[in-house]
Structure formats: C-alpha cells, structure tokens
Specification:
The chain is α+β, with helices and mostly antiparallel strands and about 650 residues long. It is built from 24 helices and 24 strands. Strands 12, 13, 14, 15, 16, 17 and 18 form a 7-stranded antiparallel beta sheet that branches. Strands 2-11-10-3-9 form a 5-stranded mixed beta sheet. α1 packs antiparallel against α2 (about 35-55), α16 (about 495-500) packs across α17 and α17 runs parallel beside α22 (about 595-605). Mean pLDDT is about 85; it is low at about 65-70.
Length: about 650
C-alpha cells in the first residue's frame, strides 16, 4: 500500500473510531440510539477491515475497547472477572465451521442489560451492571425487585453468575400505553430496561416488571462437578434461576437449530438481537484463551437481515406537538420477514442528508432485529429530496435546528394545530375532563383530519363515526367506548373546566382555589378585576393577570361558551381541608405515588400549602425518596436541619 493510501485509510479510521465511539456512548451510557444496528455493524466492519489492511489499530478503537464508562449516579465497582464482548458473524456456515467437531450450546442473545449477581451463603449480596466490562454500577437494591430472581438459594459459599435483565415486548407495550404524551413514550424495550435497572429508587424498578435470565456461571461450583455448560445451566435451574433458552448442537444439527430460533423470534416476547454459540466443554473453551477484546470460547450470531430492494415513492413529513417534523419514507411495498412493509421512519434531517434521498431512488430496506423497518442503503443517491420550507400541518415557516450534532426540522408557528395537541391533551387529562380513550396519538390523528379544532369539537366527534370506526386501531367497539367516555365527562365541575382550558400558569390546585374563592360562580371569575384576583392567596399578580387576560379575550370567551353548551356543570361545595396552610415544601427526585411533581404540587397547594423551588430556613420539609442522595437540595436541607421525608412519610403525616 502506498504511503498516500495508507494515510487516507488511517484518516478514515479516525473518522470511523470517533463516530462509532459516539454511538457506543449514546447506546451504553445515555440509553439512546443515534444510528441503527445495521449502520453500526457496517461501519464497524469497515474499520476492522482497514485495521487489517494497514496493520494499525488506534488506541481508542472500538475494536479493542469494550462498552462505555458507567454513569456517575450509581456506585461503581470493578468486576473480578472482566466482561468481554463476543466476536460475531452473520454467516450460518461460518458458525458451523467455528464449531467444527465439537459440541456446543446455542442460546438467545437477549437484548437488555447484562447484570452480574453475587450470592453469599445463599443470599443475594451484590448485583452489578456490565458497565464498560471492567467497571460496572451497583444496582443490588434494584435487582431485588426483579420478578424472577431468587433472594435465597440453597447453595452455600459464594456464587457468581451472569445474565440479562430484560423487559418483554408485552410489558413494554403495557407501560407505554399508560403514558399519554406520545413524545414521552419509550422507544424500545432495551432503553426502558436500561433506565429501569439503573434507577436510584428501586420502587420504580419494581413497577417495570424486569426479569433476569442467566446465561453464564462465573464461579462458585466445583469444576470437577460441572464440566459442561449444559450441566451448569441445569445447576442454575435447580437453584431457582430462569436460564436463557438454549439447545445442544453439533455440526449435524446446528443449522436446524438456527432455523428453530429464527422462526421463534417472530413471536418471541423477549427482545433478542441474535444467538450465542458456546463450546459445551468448559475446560476446552477456557484453554483457547482470548484476544484483546473477545473470548475464544463463544461467538455471537447476528441475523443476516433480509434485505429487499424497492423504490422510494415519497417522504411524508409528520408534525408533532413540540413542533418537531419527522420524515417518514413511503416506498413500493415489499415482503420482509413474512410481512408486507411500505413505510419506515427516517428519524431526522441528518439521516435524510446522509442517505442522499430523492423521490424515485432505488433503496434497500430491512427490519432491524426482524421487527422495525429501516432503510439500509440508497442505491441511487440522487439527493434530490427537498426539505420542506413550510409545515405540512399549518403551512407556517420551518427551520432546521441542531442538537447533539443532529439536524432536525421544526415548525416555527406557535399557533400550529400540531402544537395545540398539547392543549387538547391537557383538556382530556385526568385532572381536567378525564376522558378515557383520547390518547395524545389519537388526538393528533383527529386534529390532522380536521375533526378537532377547539375544545367543544371533542363532544361532536360522533358525526365522524363512519370515518373513525374504519381508522387503524379503531372499530365499532372502540368507537362506542370512546363516545361513552366523552359523554360521561359532560357531567363535570367548574374547577376541572378552568384547569382544562389551559389558562397560563393555572394548575389544578389554582383552579380549585379560584372556584372556592368565587363560590363556584363562573360569571364572578370572568368579571373579576386584576386587583380582586391578586388578593387570592396563592394567585398573585402574575397569575391574576393571566386569568384576567384570558377572560377578556373575545375569542376565548366564544370558545368557552361553545364548550359550556356541551357540558352539565354541577354545583360544588368547598370540602377541601386547609391543613397545610402556612407550610412550605420542596420536591425533588423521582416520584412513585404521583405521575409528576406538578401533581403533588397541586395537592399541596389545594390544601393551602406552598411549594418552593429551593430549600431555605422557611422550608417545612424536603420531599425526596432518596435521603442518601448527595444532591444540592439534600445537602442544603441537612445544613439547615430541614426534615427530609419520603412521599409515603409525607402522605402519612400530612394527607391522612
């Protein structure tokens, strides 16, 4: 190789190393993905090929480093035995050749978070994440909430094993279905699992239905007793552990075993991104040693993605309530993994540009992990696709914004209907009109179709019955349930309406205060002066101005009148206790009993209390479920001798 070519190769290696390490950091430390597995593997293979060709390996190359450093929030500990990555192949024949004449164990390569468990004298003593392979994070308290981990085992002495913490697809869908905000939903089970396992508060972990599947016994059993991986699996099952599904294989049946897993993954409820083949003879596997990064006793098999070539028909630009406009590729339908596929998310402008997309281009598509449609390559690379200069929903001006080195398209119109989704989401929420069946995703569909333009339109959806029952995700029964929920919400009380119409700064608690002060008479609230409103405890001049401005806007009054014509307001009496009057609280950290800090704040303010943003000598108590935290609020509370109490302690002392 010429010196010039060698320099070009090394420069490309530097670019690839930086890009892959950035993707690795996002994946392992930040629970997000900035490129697909397909793209990562392709770039990784390119880097590895260049390293072989040049004989040069950069010090920070991902081919010799493992994972990424653990985040700072959890205590760290060094693994007694380093946790290495596995070499990989997508070739079935190569897997068969690797096994040779030996016997092996073929098992799922589960897609979650690897965890090391240590038991001492039959009790779970420590649980540590993989981290960077050398150092992991201690998550012992969280592991104790995993659904299927035995707290006590019959084995005495020390026992160390490894396995994968996972969240099933069905639990993932269930958890996401409980989140009304489409932008707040989790992207995939692995991200949800990683965030759940690494929580500072294990009560949150307990609600996520995390499960653990053992895949390796590290130490604790007599080597003369269990000489094969199969025997170790049986030993772990006898102790009460769920072990990863596996099959005994040799060169005669390994291809059939791969086909078994390939068929099962189509309906398998546990996320998997491939298989692992391990020599069954433990002593033989250990005798092979390791490379700088990989052990030689095992190899990973990643599914060779079924790729289909098709033609890009159009790119739809889908606006969200945040103003973000996401590109979605629409192409000629193709068969992939047994289903017909015609759409794939392109995620952002940066990916559109990197793929050099243009309408009519020939592209290849695949299903990531045999599930999620993605564009693999653009064979034409015309680059003719124009980035919209106007929003597809409102026609307002768009702009490209850069965040974390990623270009994304946004609508700049504050009045864009897509952005107004947020106001409709608030309107139907539990503390407002409390309408079941109108998730943010459903609201977005109805707004896009022109069914909902103002609050009163929610109560007129029945005139679109013929269209709604034929929409994806709907049907006659779903429609009937939706209308029943809407009709049930017609009988309501004033403070729910005041909160639901979204007056700036007025939360559920403030709405109740307003209604109590004016004897639940809407006309009194509408005619109140700024001075009168300012006299209300907990309202103040700023909120008073917002209330006055809202009720002196002709368009707002017109919309409110239309809404009230659809409702039956019940007269309400003041029954709320004011037992927190004169008390001030600060809230920090994650919550278990409330969906958000605002919900807890509203409850405190409804009972006459106040919520401040920082701890001072006037603070009654700091509400924090982690009293061992080293956060600035905890430190300040301890300095000032302010009580630090958990949610449960707050409820028991102040609300019961």
């Amino acid at each position: 190789m010429s010196n010039e070519n060698n320099q070009e190769s090394i420069q490309r290696m530097k670019e690839l190393t930086e890009l892959l390490n950035k993707a690795s950091k996002a994946y392992y430390a930040e629970d997000k993905e900035i490129m697909s597995n397909f793209e990562y593997d392709k770039l990784y293979d390119e880097l590895q090929s260049l390293e072989e060709k040049t004989g040069v390996i950069l010090s920070n190359s991902p081919t010799v480093s493992v994972g990424y450093e653990a985040v700072e929030e959890l205590p760290k500990v060094r693994h007694e035995t380093p946790m290495l990555s596995l070499g990989k192949t997508k070739s079935r024949e190569e897997l068969q050749e690797w096994l040779g004449e030996k016997e092996g164990i073929l098992s799922w390569k589960l897609d979650g978070l690897t965890v090391v468990l240590t038991y001492n004298d039959g009790k779970l003593a420590k649980a540590v994440t993989r981290g960077n392979g050398e150092v992991g994070e201690v998550i012992t308290n969280n592991a104790r909430t995993f659904k299927n981990i035995p707290m006590n085992i019959s084995h005495r002495g020390e026992l160390v094993l490894r396995g994968e913490a996972v969240i099933s697809y069905s639990d993932f869908e269930r958890i996401n279905s409980q989140i009304p905000d489409a932008d707040a939903k989790y992207k995939n089970p692995r991200n949800l699992c990683s965030g759940s396992v690494r929580q500072l508060n294990n009560e949150i972990t307990a609600k996520r239905d995390v499960r653990f599947y053992a895949f390796s016994l590290v130490s604790g059993a007599d080597e003369n007793t269990y000489k094969t991986v199969e025997e170790q699996f049986e030993f772990l099952k006898e102790l009460g552990f769920d072990v990863v599904e596996h099959k005994s294989v040799d060169k005669s049946n390994i291809l059939a075993a791969i086909e078994y897993f390939e068929e099962k993954i189509k309906t398998y409820d546990i996320p998997s991104d491939g298989l692992v083949l391990t020599y069954n003879d433990i002593a033989y596997g250990r005798s092979l040693g390791r490379t700088a990064k990989f052990p030689r006793h095992s190899i990973a098999f990643k599914w060779a993605d079924e790729i289909a070539e098709t033609t890009l028909k159009e790119v739809e630009w889908s606006a969200s309530r945040t103003g973000l406009i996401n590109p979605v590729a629409v192409f000629e339908p193709v068969e992939l993994e047994g289903t017909t596929v015609s759409r794939a998310s392109v995620h952002n402008v940066s990916i559109v540009k990197s793929l050099k997309l243009g309408i009519g281009d020939r592209i290849t598509v695949y299903k990531a992990n045999m599930i999620i449609p993605q564009i693999a390559e653009n064979l034409t690379k015309s680059g003719r696709l124009s980035i919209p200069e106007v929003c597809p929903v409102c026609g307002g001006k768009t702009e490209i914004r850069v965040g974390n080195d990623v270009e994304s398209l946004y609508c700049t119109n504050d009045k864009c209907p897509a952005k107004e989704i947020k106001s409709f989401t608030l309107f139907v929420s539990r503390d407002a009109m409390n309408i079941d069946g109108l998730s943010e995703m459903t609201l977005e569909k109805f707004v896009d179709m022109g069914f909902i333009k103002e609050f009163a339109d929610v109560y007129r959806l029945s005139k679109y019955k013929d269209v709604i029952v034929n929409m994806e995700g709907f049907g006659e029964k779903s429609y009937e349930n939706l209308i029943a929920g809407i009709d049930a919400s017609r009988n309501t009380v004033l403070h729910r309406v005041i909160y639901g119409i979204g007056i700036a700064g007025i939360g559920s608690a403030n709405a109740k205060v307003l209604c109590r002060y004016f004897d639940y008479e809407l006309e009194k609230i509408k005619n109140a002066t700024v001075s009168e409103l300012s006299e209300i405890d907990g309202v103040g001049e700023v909120l008073a101005g917002a209330v006055y401005e809202y009720f002196h806007n002709a368009e707002n009054i017109e919309r409110l009148d239309k809404l009230l014509a659809e409702l039956n307001l019940e007269k309400q009496e003041n029954t709320e206790s004011q037992n927190l009057a004169g008390l001030t609280f600060v809230i920090t950290g994650s919550l278990n009993n409330y969906q958000s800090r605002n919900e807890l704040k509203d409850i405190i303010e409804t009972r006459g209390g106040k919520v401040a943003g920082s701890v001072s000598s006037r603070t009654t108590a700091l509400i924090n479920n982690d009293n061992t935290s080293t956060s600035s609020k905890n430190k300040k509370a301890k300095e000032l001798s302010v009580d630090i109490i958990t949610e449960d302690e707050f409820i028991k002392k102040y609300l019961v």
